[in-house]
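Lecture notes, part 5. Sequence design as translation. It can be helpful to think of inverse folding as translation between two languages: the language of shapes and the language of residues. The source text, in structure tokens, appears below.
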């Protein structure tokens, strides 16, 4: 086993050693090595390699043996989170301990051995296929083309026909996409043919939390100073969304509860979001973002069909330890 591919040893390596190791991984997996970069966030950091392949950026994430899951606060809720939950509980006339309620939504505490991976840095869309205006599948739907023409003369930024077609205004003109129904097993098989996979739920929890014992990577409570999706204030309009910025592994992960991240499992399973159910249900910031916790129970979906509006994926390559 190559110990250098695991976090403790990897973090202790000299820069020149890391550079050589990353270059050898680039050769082995037919990638372009873009260089080493230090990612520092929420009290954890990692100096690692960034790679490019087929227009995607990947980052090397070393393996580790860690504790996952949650059963109690490591630090405790901050005052703002406590106030928010107390207000909601009064509204609902609930007499419950917040810790107990949160525990019900969290996966059990367990040890997990996580292998090293090359991980897609960004979440990617599912089901929507970019096409050009002369695609014959578009001309087969005159009603779509009529709506596209109306859109072109409007001041809208985008138009989506549910699970059919979409047009978006871009700096270069228009981007058109067609919706392809996709089922979970077929999607996994298609990735495999490309030499790619999805993280399993335990791997995803590691990529998201890095082994943190707090409810979120930054602590037990919500940080209300952050600029968050769906809770924007006008003065924050042009600021980046804090949770979407790269984490300590260089990944943009678990930043929008509306976006469910598809993981590898025996049946269609998602992490990192609940399709916005909690926010839509008026549960506020803390409970709305709770599905983004690395410890939240993975959600097994009843259907096999992926939903291009809510489901997203992150390609990974598991590094063989030769």
């Amino acid at each position: 086993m190559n110990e250098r591919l695991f976090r403790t040893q990897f973090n202790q390596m000299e820069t020149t050693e890391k550079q050589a190791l990353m270059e050898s991984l680039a050769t082995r997996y037919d990638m372009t090595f873009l260089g080493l970069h230090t990612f520092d966030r929420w009290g954890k950091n990692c100096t690692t390699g960034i790679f490019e392949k087929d227009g995607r950026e990947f980052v090397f994430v070393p393996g580790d043996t860690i504790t996952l899951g949650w059963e109690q606060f490591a630090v405790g809720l901050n005052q703002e989170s406590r106030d928010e939950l107390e207000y909601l509980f009064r509204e609902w006339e609930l007499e419950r301990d917040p810790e107990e309620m949160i525990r019900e939504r969290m996966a059990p505490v367990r040890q997990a051995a996580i292998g090293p991976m090359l991980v897609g840095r960004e979440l990617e869309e599912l089901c929507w296929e970019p096409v050009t205006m002369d695609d014959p599948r578009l001309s087969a739907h005159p009603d779509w083309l009529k709506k596209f023409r109306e859109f072109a003369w409007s001041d809208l930024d985008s138009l989506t026909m549910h699970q059919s077609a979409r047009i978006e205004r871009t700096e270069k003109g228009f981007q058109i996409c067609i919706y392809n129904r996709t089922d979970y097993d077929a999607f996994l098989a298609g990735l495999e043919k490309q030499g790619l996979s999805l993280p399993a739920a335990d791997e995803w929890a590691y990529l998201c939390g890095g082994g943190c014992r707090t409810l979120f990577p930054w602590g037990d409570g919500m940080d209300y100073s952050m600029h968050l999706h769906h809770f924007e204030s006008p003065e924050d309009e042009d600021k980046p969304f804090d949770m979407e910025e790269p984490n300590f592994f260089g990944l943009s992960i678990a930043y929008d509860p509306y976006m469910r991240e598809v993981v590898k499992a025996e049946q269609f399973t998602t992490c990192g979001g609940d399709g916005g159910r909690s926010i839509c249900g008026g549960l506020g910031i803390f409970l709305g973002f709770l599905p983004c916790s690395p410890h939240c129970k993975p959600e097994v979906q009843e259907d096999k069909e992926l939903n291009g509006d809510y489901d997203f994926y992150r390609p990974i390559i598991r590094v063989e330890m030769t």
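The translated text above is only one of many valid answers, since several sequences can fold into similar shapes. The chain is about 25% helix and 25% strand.
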